[in-house]
Specification:
By secondary structure, the chain is an alpha+beta fold. The chain is elongated. It folds into two domains: 7-85, 2-Layer Sandwich (Hypothetical Cytosolic Protein, Chain: A); 89-195, 60s Ribosomal Protein L30, Chain: A, CATH 3.30.1330.30. The two termini are 25 Å apart. The protein has seven helices and nine strands; from the N terminus they run E-E-E-E-E-H-H-H-E-H-E-H-E-H-E-H. The strands form three sheets. It has a four-stranded mixed beta sheet with strand order 6-9-7-8, sandwiched between helices. Strands 4-3-5 form a three-stranded antiparallel beta sheet. The chain has a two-stranded antiparallel ribbon with strand order 1-2. Helix content is 45%, strand content 18%.
């Protein structure tokens, strides 16, 4: 019988969920609240749902001080939300860079379109830059949908190029079960946080 995952209560809305579906926060040495997306930082943890609204409620109601049982400096919920978003983006970017080093990334609209048409059985994930042209973006999304390849709009052409050590890249595809599964999980968390959908996994 599988071991049941520990549950924690969101200090914003008071809902009880599995730890993996919540955001963990810890206190830094200077006493400020910092997000711990990896759930690995030492010390007592406080948890919220993966929703900006729960972070706002926790901050406005002084719930971080109660959770940590000490007086925590007033935390601007907007700054904390932005920190969470940056941390999520950095994690996705780091996995993309690792996949590229492992030779599991194809980039560039022509190469990606050609690869999608071949419809190889390898699991894939397509990421399109936010500043990709509308026509090219729609064409690639259509090909991805036709062949059952998941896709998301993320980052910019310049940032994709920087991560891959190349020039501007409007689209990249990751081809590897391991990387795709991990990145899908991270991207779903990121997308749901931005949309305010909490822990709804697809």
């Amino acid at each position: 019988m599988p071991k049941e995952e520990p549950r924690r209560t969101c200090i914003g809305c008071r809902e009880s969920l599995e730890k993996s579906k919540l955001l963990r926060f810890v206190l830094a040495p200077d006493g400020t609240v910092v997000p711990d997306l990896m759930n690995k930082l030492p010390g007592r943890g406080a948890y919220t749902c993966m929703k900006a609204s729960c972070i706002s409620k926790a901050s406005e109601r002084n719930q971080f001080s109660r959770a940590f049982k000490s007086q925590v400096p007033v935390t601007d919920p907007k700054e904390l939300q932005a920190w969470v978003i940056r941390s999520m983006e950095e994690r996705i970017a780091s996995y993309l860079a690792l996949a590229n080093k492992a030779g599991k990334v194809i980039s560039g609209s022509d190469l990606v379109a050609e690869m999608l048409k071949k419809n190889t059985p390898v699991k894939k994930l397509m990421l399109l830059a936010a500043d990709i042209s509308e026509d090219i973006g729609n064409k690639l999304r259509g090909l991805a949908d036709l062949h059952g390849v998941g896709h998301m709009t993320l980052f910019t052409k310049d940032y994709f190029g920087e991560l891959l050590g190349k020039g501007l890249r409007s689209v990249v595809v990751v081809q590897s079960d391991g990387f795709v599964n991990t990145m899908n999980t991270e991207i779903i968390r990121y997308r749901n946080f931005l949309r305010g959908e909490g822990c709804t996994y697809e």
